[in-house]
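Known limitations

Files may contain more than one protein. Parsers should not assume a single record per file. Below, a two-record file is shown to illustrate correct handling: read the sequence, read the token line, then continue until end of file.
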Amino acid sequence: MTITDPPARLASSLSYRSQHIDTTTMALQEALLGDDHHLQTRVRKAMVALDDRHVPGATHDSDVRRSYDMLRRLVRDLGGSSRRIAADTALLSAVFDWAAIAAPRLLPILSGHFRLAVGGIDELGNGSVYQQQCMDELDRADAIGVLLHTELGGTNGTDMQTLAIHQPDGTFLLRTPHAGAVKFMPNVAEGGVPKTVIITARLVIDGVDEGVFPFLLRLRTTAGLAAGVDVTALPNKAWAPMDNAMIMFQDAVVPADGLLGGDWARVVGGRLVCDLSRGARFHRAINPLQTGRITLAGAAVAGARAGTAITWHYAKQRRAGTGPALSERDAFQRDLTTAVAQVYAMTTLVRDVRERFGTSADVTRSVRAMLAKPILSNTALEVLSVCRQRCAAQGALRANYLTEWAGNVEGIITAEGENQVLQVTTGKLPRQVAQGRAPRHMDITGLQVLNSPVDTPWWQRLLTERERVLASTAQVGDIGADVFGADSAAIELSTATAERLAADSLLAAAQHSSDRRARGLLGVLAAAYGLERLQAHALWYIAHGLLSSERAAQLGIELTACRREVAAHLDTLVNAFGIPRLAAPIATDDYQQAWLDFAGWDQLLVGGE
């Protein structure tokens, strides 16, 4: 399906037939996506051109091969260099976001190729001939990049089990010493697709364990698997067709230049030369994961934007007989206004984190990514679940994309660090800071991802107070009788901080908008999001004496008023997402006719006419 874009602006969304975009919609788009309209339009056109629609009867394997074909075409259409795409943070973010929306089968393989493999070599490599040869193949997408990190026994920080044993000739032998060390889930099973991989493994020199390092290997070429590598395809997942596999190493040879140690780690005369501690070596090795976390989380939110847009478009057509359209029913409006407020808050949050990602010290950047990923992806899944349910039977069909978007988010929740693990890690930082076991700037309650608004609404002050109380109890190790345990308390604090930051980001977007009407709408959305979060934690606020019964009643009245205001402007708010016309029956102007066309039943009258 082709689309036409007005100059320097995204085309109209599913909500409108007209291509006219007023100044308010443009201002909302800028708050969500930034002001580089040319970049967004260019990437979106490239994704739509891939024509990633569901093909009835397509096999899992054919979908897998199609995803790699789409990746090669995308690289070609965006200039022919994977390396340039990976190095341009704004471009890479746009690639992930628009893939999530218009090419959901492509999204799952993007992170491994662009961020973890290509970006990993750029960030951790030393420019040797071998590394440059591998990079050239990845750059052209002649080979696809993958990270082999997760292990069957679990990937628990520095406790990696795969071994890379240094040999007298300078090479390394990769070895899987026991079942728990089997690499689990990387997408390397497809025999016809060359794969160049980065493997995290424990470096062993003369019997001494030197810690975890990354190693570069041409795992699969046109000639087949590398010697000493066994690959077994895993059963299919419930979503996102991929050639996931288990990998066992039986002394597979990695060239001497396969150690990705940059200028900070090398083997000289049979001895490791590295100034970093063992723990620091691991964190340097997995540093490319940090950008992957926030890029993938942003893609999850992009899928949620698409889900709300397609659901709103369908709801305006769906009627029960001669009754009101689904979009006019109050229960539906309550659900969709909540979803739209959540999507706006998450989109402004991910934009703020992305924009500040390259300007922070590595450790602070890492904490920001770990803090943001859970709330972004968890909220995206919540929104998409509501959209799928409100679309009823239509929402269950892959042809209507909702299950594709939700499935990808399910994968994102696990990828680059499972969400709950990240929440426990970040939520325990304040206590570690208080005990001197972590530097002060790692305290998540002190991480101002953006500037707080000057005039803080009452509900925003309560969000901040919840965070302060949880942080103060965490610092002294008091988890409280109403909390299940220390991990649960950490999750509460991490979530409270993330929710406060999301509200901050949306309020800041409202303040900075140049359009008066957009400022008002963004402010109402921020209030709707913040008040809904207060309502969700109302029992906690009451128990801590922070919310009186009178204020609780007022909260409900204000939240309902905000939802009504959002409902009155849903066309404008959803249109600002810029979602293109998708190849889905419920994305058309007449979903009933679209299904009749699918069946070839042109003799029927739609709507009983």
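...continuing to the second record:
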Amino acid sequence: MRGDINSDLRERIVRAIGEADQPVESLFQARRRARDAAEDAIAVLRSEAYYAYGVEAEVSEGEPPRSVVEVEPGPRFVFADPQVAWTGEAPDQETQAKGREAMDITPGDPGRAAEVVAAEGRIVAAVRESGYADVSADAREVIVDHADDTVRPTFRIDAGGLVRLDGLVLDTEGRTNPAWLAQLRPWTPGDVYDPEDVAELERRLLDTGVYNSVTVALSAQDDVDEEGRRRVLVGLEDREPRTLEFGASYSTTEGFGADTRWSRYNVLGRADTLTLAARVSELDSRLGADLTLPHWRRAAQTLHMSAAAYRNETDAFEETGVGVGADLRRRYGANSFVTVGGSLDLTRSDEKDSRTLSPLGRDLIIGAVFGAVSLDRSNDLLDPTQGWRADLRLEPSYIAGDESLPYLEIATQGVAYMPLDSQAQTVLAGRLKVGSLVGATLDIPASRRFYAGGGGSVRGYAYQAVGPRLEDNTPRGGLSLIEVSLEARRKLTERWGVVAFVDAGSVGDEMTPTGENMSVGVGVGVRYDLGFGPIRADIAIPLDYDKRDGAFQIYLSIGQSF
């Protein structure tokens, strides 16, 4: 390619022309290659607003012949006098003003073709958001004036009529109760159409997790009631009525764990889920049932009820019990939640007396209520590369039985993800968790204290290994907690990635977290992307020699560590 071309434009043309699969071996091939390259160059020039170009396809002399493209871009054309013309009946004045504002074409800017197409899309979107659901773009008129090197676009928009909404119609057969579905609409019949309302209805249905697909659409333009309102048609494809799931995990200190879940969907016709779950592991085993009722009594509000029998066997304590619980979660926006709930547990807790080291068994009744706020602004559930998450939980509890003790548990955690390149091939991830048991003393049962160490806490240390210990080296737990983690994640291929990380944690005897006596672990890991999320394998080394239960720890699980 020859010609006086600026570097950015030259690079675009070179990318468009590309490379030939095979070298040119004949004059015929050279001419065809030159013509193809010239057409590619013209397409780039026109898209970048160079309409007075000169492009010549040539073949050089010599053996073998070479394809040559002579490019003279000429002046770059700029926008002038952009207009919106309404075909059919024009919308109201406010909507017209929104359409012109959404066009967002500044006279004097380069008259690129992509800007014309994007502007048309913005106009249509703005008009639709104002209630004109049937808006469409007719053939636009773009005048390229070589007399003054300008591009004058006129967008021809058919707004259609203002649409007001009626109720819902379920137009597919299935297990869902139409009366329950009707309460999910985020509008009142007679409201002006808003595409965000339709999107919110679709989101509410997808959030339930009981449908393979959801479609939400307006009825036909001539399908209106006496007041001219349009119905919203909903199509639902039920997922299989039952699923059976299995899971497993492993670490060198926590051992193997196995889970199974049997779920039954939409038994009550209101997108409900009934789950029977069992877990067996060296640390904790449980058998329980859960019932989830999405959009309970109002949209975006989920009632969850549970009951379980469990047994926990750790180095610090053994606990056997049964419990029931219920919580109500309210969604705000796409991924923000407020949850309130309560629980009641009857337990037998066996631990060691911190003074005499003699066995101490306690029969307890533990009642608790809680409130929690969760914000998620990350871009993926299992493998986030940017954004942040934050959680706060307040749980007042009262312990009755062999002892009576009220206290308040406060726990908060923040996580952030920062990509270091445009493709998010390298990502820095950080986590900070802080907890406190306000009003409690070390007489609180061992099962209710804070501990640190293990795969979801401070890697490199055994489960509960970080923090104070009794004289016989049994983990004692504490009244406050701080955990900090930092990971550098790097993708090597589409599927494989590596991680380097540092974890640190501290468990204190006082209610106020101080971060004293931090235990630090470092390690590396590999990730294999399954498509929906990664499998992770980590190996970590503890740097606090006094709390080492081994030279290293290995962790296998699904999903990133945080």
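Parsers that stop after the first record will miss the second one. For reference, the second record is described as follows. Residues 27-47 form the longest helix (21 residues).
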